[in-house]
Every structure is written in C-alpha cells, then in structure tokens.
Design brief:
418 residues, alpha/beta, 21 helices, 5 strands, 6% strand
Length: 418
C-alpha cells in the first residue's frame, strides 16, 4: 500500500542537535536539555502554539530515553484504553499524550494515581493554557514548559532545508529567492509545520523557478514581499504611527492592513499602538491606554486573522482621540535632569523611617500627611532643593487635559496658601 510521507515528517529531527527553536529550553546547558540528555525525565507538559516542536520534542525523548515510550492521542482515546495501557506497564514507561486538553477532567483523573505512584512518567502536549485545561491535581505533579512561536530566522532555516531535501529527493534544482523565502516565513507566522507543508506545495507546483505568481496562487492571496527586520518594516510602522498622530483614520486603517496582510506579527503592532496611547494621547484621553492594552490582550488570546478587527478598533480610537505629547515631553525632560544634574539625596521629610536610627537621623521629620489637610494638599517639598521649582508636566489644550490644567492650577494656588 502506498504511503505518502509529508516533508514536515521527513525533516523531523531525531536528536536535540537538529531541533530548531526553543533555545530557552534546549539550548546548551539549559534545564530541559540536561534532563533529556541525562534520561531523567519528570512528568511534564509542553504548552505552546501549533507547529513549534511539542511533538518533535516528545519524539526526541522517545529516541533517547531508556524507558518504554507509549504515544497516546487525546483525540480518539478513552478511559478504557488508558486503564488497559496502565495494566500492561511493567517497566519504566513514559506516556506521551498529544492534545491533552481534549481529555475531559475524568479522563485526566485516570492518569493521576499512576503519575502519583511513579508508575508512569506523563508528557502532555497542549495548545491551551494548562491552568484552565488540566486538572489542578495533575498539573501540580507536572513541570510546565512553555514553547514559543518560532522566529522568522528559524522558519527561514527550515524552508531552506526543505528546498534542499526536495532537490536531493527529486534530483532537481529549484530557483527561489531570499525574498520569497522571507515572504513564506512571514505567512507561516512561527509555525514550522505550516511552513514545511507550504513550501512542499509550492515546490511540487513549480517547474524549477518560484515566482510571485506561484506564491500568490499557493498561498491564496497576493504576496506583499516584506522584510520584518528591514527598511520597509520601519517605513510601514512609521506610516501607521504618523497617520494616527495626524488623526487620519482612513490612512491608519490602510497601513494597519498593509502590515497585517504582509505577515507582520500583530503583537508587534499592538505594542507600538500601546506606546502611541501614552506618547501621543496621554491624559488628553486616558482611556486610549485601556483600549490599546485590551487590543494587545485580544491579539495574544486569538491571533490572526481574527484579531485584525481588535487592532482596527484600537487604531481608529487612537486616530480619533485628542492628541497630547505632554507626558512624553515631561518624562524626557525629567530624564535629562536625572542624568545630568547632581544626584541629590531624597529630602529627609519624605524618606522612609524604618528604624530608630533613621528617625534619630531625621528621616521623615517634618513630613505632612496629605489626608490630614484640606483638599489633601500641603506645601511639603518633594523635589530636591536644586529642582524645587522645576515643572515637567504641562497639560496641553486638548481633550481632558483642558480640565487637568485647570485642576493643576487650583492645586498650585492651594499649595501656596498652606
């Protein structure tokens, strides 16, 4: 019977030396690598998005351990099968459960006594947060290792290996540019399996040369060749930032779409929009920060393509919000003084007097507890003497900062009267 082996399986490494990514876990002298090399495997969970090496790591452990290794899929397993496996265990055994989050709580409970007794070592792989999807009792007995989406460089290395393997197997030569490799890597968004499956489709479809037209057909969309670390990357994020700053809603949406459809990491865009909320809006509309942080969290929870609408909401909100760079200017001016002025000690009156010696030295002497005064305002000096009259924050005439300016003026008048 004919059996087709996908390129992703052909290139699956069997040792840690061939494993791509997750250097924080399996790099030289890292904890998990030592456990695997010493064949000292505890019960553990691999948590991460699809295509980042969870199953591959389990197979590497299977190749290196002296234990009996049993693979069990949660998609078609049952409690009966679990118990049948448990009754046959008579030697050191590691059981790998792919997609363990698909087991309900009673199915997970079936493993608990065997893990507790040390009869088996359990390795589970999941794309879902174990805190919510794995029984707390089982979770407490497993070490959780977090795996992250592969970097673009990792994916590009895999794609190059895939092309070479295809050429060797088919005795041919494929012409594919670095730009096309980069575009495919962007499209695959850190998923090694998707990357290798995609390059295999493309290579099987080409006649020796991979061009723009072929990529567009195979990927199902127009390819925007885009280097996420090159000039165009910075040009596009600059265009988005400046469009929002200029309150140009239409342009803001367009540049957002250009970046996302070119394969940009939505979390990168979300982080920049969060920064924009304080740098260019600030207290003129404080809820901009709430909106943008919520958008970041949404991107983290659900990813592309669904999170595009959340980023659009944040970008439109920022574009329409009143603009102020008062916080940005205030902080930068304070940085100059902090870096260049004499580092005066904290005024005694606002130091923390933790011990009798500190009190004897005058720590906290003359401190005025604001809540004991009208309007919770005193004339207590909180800046060093050389900076006592320094003004960093000057509200703009935009949005809520109009009222903040009025309130700040009233504070200063009341402070001068106390």
């Amino acid at each position: 019977m004919y059996k087709y082996t996908p390129l992703a399986n052909k290139l699956r490494p069997v040792t840690l030396d061939g494993f791509v990514g997750q250097k924080h876990l399996v790099g030289e002298n890292c904890f998990l690598r030592k456990l695997i090399e010493q064949d000292n495997i505890p019960s553990m969970l691999f948590w991460g998005p699809p295509g980042v090496g969870k199953t591959t790591l389990a197979k590497i452990i299977a190749n290196t351990t002296q234990s009996n290794f049993v693979t069990f899929s949660a998609t078609n397993g049952s409690i009966k099968q679990i118990r049948e496996i448990m009754t046959t265990v008579n030697e050191k055994t590691i059981i790998f459960i792919d997609e363990i989050h698909r087991f309900n709580k009673s199915q997970q409970d079936a493993f608990l006594p065997y893990v507790e007794e040390g009869t088996i070592t359990l390795i589970g792989a999941t794309t879902e947060n174990p805190s919510f999807e794995v029984n707390s009792a089982l979770l407490s007995r497993c070490k959780v290792f977090v795996l992250y989406a592969l970097t673009n460089e990792d994916i590009e290395d895999l794609l190059v290996k895939g092309v070479k393997a295809f050429e060797e197997e088919n005795s041919c030569k494929i012409e594919i540019s670095e730009e096309h490799i980069n575009a495919i890597a962007n499209f695959c968004n850190g998923d090694a399996r998707t990357a290798l499956n995609t390059i295999e489709i493309i290579l099987n479809s080409c006649t020796g040369t991979v061009d723009d037209n072929l990529l567009e057909q195979c990927l199902g969309r127009r390819m925007n060749l885009y280097d996420k670390t090159g000039e165009e990357h910075y040009n596009l994020i600059s265009a988005l930032h400046k469009s929002m700053r200029n309150s140009d809603v239409q342009a803001s949406i367009y540049w957002l779409a250009r970046m996302l459809e070119s394969g940009e990491d939505p979390l990168y865009i979300a982080r920049r929009v969060v920064r924009f909320a304080s740098e260019d809006i600030g207290l003129a509309e404080p809820t901009a920060l709430t909106q943008t942080v919520a958008a970041y969290q949404a991107c983290h929870f659900i990813g592309m393509p669904e999170c595009g609408v959340h980023l659009t909401q944040a970008v439109v909100y920022c574009a329409l919000a009143p603009k102020s760079n008062a916080l940005y200017v205030a902080y930068n001016n304070a940085v100059v003084d902090a870096a260049n002025s004499f580092a005066e000690p904290v005024p005694l009156q606002i130091r923390n007097a933790e011990t009798k010696l500190m009190k004897d030295l005058g720590y906290g002497k003359g401190y005025k507890y604001a809540h004991d005064f009208d309007n919770a305002i005193t004339d207590l000096q909180c800046l060093p003497d050389s900076l006592a009259d320094k003004v960093y924050y000057i509200p703009s005439k935009q949005g809520r900062e109009v009222k903040l300016e009025q309130y700040l003026e009233s504070i200063n008048k009341k402070r001068n009267k106390t």
